[in-house]
Amino acid sequence: MYYKKIEGKLCYLSPINQEDYExxxxxxxxxxxxIGLMTASKIITxxxxxEILAHLQNTEYNFxxxxxxxxxxxxxxxxxxxxTLNRCAEIGVFIGKKEDQSKxxxxxxxxxxxxFGFNILNFHNMYLKVYDxxxxxxxxYEKVGFKEAGRLRETKIIAGQKFDTIYMDMLASExxxxxxxxxxxxxxxxxx
Length: 192
Description:
By secondary structure, this protein is of the alpha+beta class. The protein has a single domain (6-187), classed as Gcn5-related N-acetyltransferase (GNAT) (Aminopeptidase), CATH 3.40.630. Helix content is 30%, strand content 33%. Strands 1-2-3-4-5-6-8-7 form an eight-stranded mixed β-sheet, with helices on one face. α4 links the parallel β5 (88-95) and β6 (125-131). α1 (21-28) packs across α3 and α4 packs across α5 (135-144). It is globular, with a radius of gyration of 17 Å. One of its GO terms (molecular function) is acyltransferase activity, transferring groups other than amino-acyl groups. InterPro entries: Acyl_CoA_acyltransferase (IPR016181), GNAT_dom (IPR000182).
């Protein structure tokens, strides 16, 4: 069962459903999916993934990305490493279904989580990490408005090749609220 916390045109963000552990296990053990994540070197069992989802369910801001028309799980997005003093946080995102990649879910779910982070949680800076070989993800992040903030050189070695970890970020002043501003505007209108 999924619940619409914040909704876009293609998808909505819902609290994580722990019963999706088998699907997440399949995705996270698929090297085509996990190679772009920080989990490529991990072996995820169904039991372990169920524990992880239970933990994520009970931590602050982790969401399932759900297709709006089909009400099916397509990925996951969350806010982590929250620095409340400086109003900064990291975002983690992935689209687990190969057939759903490059269809706009990543872009829209990022806009939804940024909207939530900047306009509900009042963050000032939100950032993410990506390996420099993940060109599709980098392109998606740039389309959303993320800018490269820096990189750690040669932090990932795969098949003898060395790759950088790129940090990309966005400031609240650079984000245009697509959803929450409309909700506030409607609530603020006085009926005559």
